[in-house]
Amino acid sequence: MIQAKRGDTVKVHYTGKLDDGTVFDSSKGREPLEFSIGEGIVIPGFEEAIVGMSPGESKTASICAEQAYGPYRPELVMVVERQRIPTDIPLEVGQLLQISQSNGQAIPVVVTNVSESEVTLDANHPLAGQELIFDIQLVEIN
Fold it and tell me: Which domains does the chain have, with CATH numbers?
């Protein structure tokens, strides 16, 4: 029986959950996710979970933070003066913004606190520091 290995292009259906059962992403109702194992398109632990699976096989995989979006890094949280953000941008907690680095690269950040004088921005991935649980079904190997 054929098994998925590095270099294979695969199609998978998946549901990603947190420890408490909250679903954060799923391919249900969509086309299966297609990617090549080893190209780094998906998180490393997800790729590893698929290696060795056969078409039609399903499994549940727990992926530690280090193999997902990495640990939560407090140094990626910054407090900026409110006046440094253009006044035409209405700010609210949970809002996604982009900030530009000195080299011109844009970094996505989430607004985590707003006061009259300061805004707290978090550049961590929203799932950083969390163990993720995936229900995976390998649909096809190309």
Answer: 9-70+127-141 (3.10.50.40), 74-122 (2.40.10.330)
| CA geometry: angle 85, 91, 94, nearest 5 deg | 125
Which amino acid, residue 7? G
- pTM of structure: 0.85
Asked if 10 contacts 20 with a C-beta cutoff of 8 angstroms, the reply is no
Q: Which residues of the chain have pLDDT under 70?
A: none
Show Cβ contacts of residue 27 under 8 Å, excluding neighbours closer than 6 positions. Answer: 12, 13, 14, 15, 33
- pLDDT tens-digit series, residues 125-136: 999 999 999 999
